Amino acid sequence: MSRPPGRKQENHKISRDLFVLTYGALVAQLCKDYERDEDVNSCLDRMGYGIGIRLIDDFLAHSDVKKCRSYSETADVIAQVAFKMYLGVTPSVSCCSATGNEFSLILDKNPLVDFVEELPVERASLCYCNLLCGVIRGALEMVHLAAEVTFLQDRLRGDAVTEIRIAFVRKAEDRKHKRK
Amino acid sequence: MADEALFLLLHNEMVAGLYRAAEQGEGENGRCTTKLESMGFRVGQGLIERFTKDTARFKDELDIMKFICKDFWTTVFKKQIDNLRTNHQGIYVLQDNKFRLLTQISAGKQYLEHAPKYLAFTCGLIRGGLSNLGIKSIVTAEVSSMPACKFQVMIQKM
User: Fold this and answer.
1) Which sequence spans correspond to the domains of chain A?
2) If you compute the radius of gyration of chain A from its CA atoms, what whole number of angstroms results?
3) Rg (chain B; Cα; Å)
4) Alpha-carbon distance A104 to nearest alpha carbon in chain B (angstroms)
5) What is the domain partition of chain B in residue ranges?
6) Please, are residues B73 and B66 in contact by the beta-carbon 8 Å criterion?
7) Which of A51, A70, B41, B82 has a CA between 20 and 30 Å from the CA of residue B72?
8) DSSP class of A155
9) Strand locations in A44-173, DSSP E?
10) Phi, psi dihedral angles at B88 (to 5 degrees)
11) A37 vs chain B: nearest CA distance in angstroms?
């Protein structure tokens, strides 16, 4: 074989680059199509939702995770298994509410913005990685966990780190206890 | 690494999202294909740069096309092009018998008319890749039976 040994590693990296570049082209096209940042953000969120509801099947098929017994376990699985598997990074998780249903994922390295230098001035409130919020929301919904996912801080907008807030919404438990 | 699932899903969402927006907006189908193709073009340009950083210089046009068919296609779609034909006068036909972006769609006649939507991005990808290797081209695609498709590359002599 005349291939150098590091080729497989490079190929993974190029597959990752393909996704990142495609995402960048998508955001650029959306910015051309929609004038308001909110429209672009909601479009990205909707697309992310569509991806998330399908990605969860792929995730569960490829990973060995058992059923999560608590919200904090779920948040840990998202950060340590899912992010690692798909984006190659492991955000750190912290719980930020007394009731135990709000968590923050702090990303100090975000592969989606590898090729982005800075947002244009007229797009100050664009949430570049909003797709991620939709993906997490969609995936959680398919395992019957309703959550609101938003970006609290974003490095591209000048904040120190990128922080994603996942707020699980407690559903009324009465349906489970209905007895005939 | 589960990257292929991510790209496949993103691509399908992009196609669906663009066409949905077009239906609600002006209702122009042609623009969507152009948009997808130009996105693919930009991605192809960037990708080929990362890819050929360390490879040797290409001898001629045919060498470049073979590179696209083997290494490029393998990295992006996890398989090689099944058949490359040329008339040695600037026209190349790349045939893929099991195109990754079409395998998720049922293999019958039902969705044949929708198949070209899923090829536009890849046409741009090829055109962008060739463009940054110094070749100006026009790339079109056709599907005769799912999931096989043919990409026709016409080299433009400058």
Assistant:
1) 16-116+126-168
2) 18
3) 16
4) 23
5) 2-153
6) no
7) A51
8) G
9) 92-95, 102-107, 147-153, 162-168
10) 60, 15
11) 16
For domain B2-153, give the fold: Muramoyl-pentapeptide Carboxypeptidase; domain 2 (3.30.1380)
Are residues A19 and B16, on separate chains, in Cβ contact within 8 Å?
no
Three-state SS for A172? coil
Give A82→chain B minimum CA distance, Å: 10
Q: What's the predicted TM-score (pTM) here?
A: 0.88
Nearest CB to B3: which of A19, A23, A26? A19
Establish, for the pair of chains A and B, how many residue pairs have beta carbons separated by less than 8 Å.
Answer: 89
Residues, chain A, total? Answer: 180
| Confidence (pLDDT) at A175 | 43
Residue (of A108, A144, A112) closest to A44 by Cα position: A112
pLDDT class for A178, splitting at 50, 70, 90? very low
Mean pLDDT of successive 10-residue segments in chain B (158 residues)?
Answer: 80 90 68 91 93 87 91 90 91 92 83 88 95 93 89 88
Do A52 and A137 touch, CB atoms closer than 8 A? yes
* CATH fourth-level superfamily of A16-116+126-168: Trafficking protein particle complex subunit 3 (3.30.1380.20)
Are residues A54 and B9, on separate chains, in Cβ contact within 8 Å?
yes
Q: Quick: pLDDT tens for A49-72.
A: 999 999 999 999 988 888 888 888
The whole-angstrom separation of Cα A17 and Cα B90 is 30
Pick from B5, B10, B50: which is nearest to A58 by CB? B5
Rounded (to 5) percent helix, strand, coil in chain A: 55, 15, 35
Of the candidates B37, B43, B41, the one whose C-alpha atom is nearest the C-alpha of residue B116 is: B37
Question: For position B10, what pLDDT does the model report?
Answer: 92
* Short-list B133, B157, B129, B131, CA closest to B57: B133
